[in-house]
Amino acid sequence: MADHHLPLTRSNVLAAHARIKPHIHLTPVLTCTTLSTLASTPQPPEALLGTPFEGQPPANPKVNLFFKCENFQRIGAFKCRGAFHALSWLREEGGDSLARGVVTHSSGNHAQALALAARTHGCAAHIVMPRISTPAKIAATQALGAEIVFSGSTAAEREDVVKSVLERTGGVLVPPYDHEDIILGQGTVGVELEGQVRGLLAGEGEDEEEGAEGGRRRRKRKRREGQVLDAVVAPLGGGGLLSGIATAMEGTGTRVFGAEPSFQGADDGRRGLASGERVTSVSSLTIADGLRTPVGVLPWSVISDKEKVQGVFAVSEEQIKAAMRLVMERMKVVVEPSAAVGLAVVLYDEDFRRLVETEGGEEGWDVGVVLSGGNTTVEAVGGLFAGAGAGATPKVEREEGKMGLGGERVAENVAG
Question: Which of 29, 78, 284, 339 sits in a 20 to 30 Å window from 187, CA-based?
Answer without folding.
Answer: 284
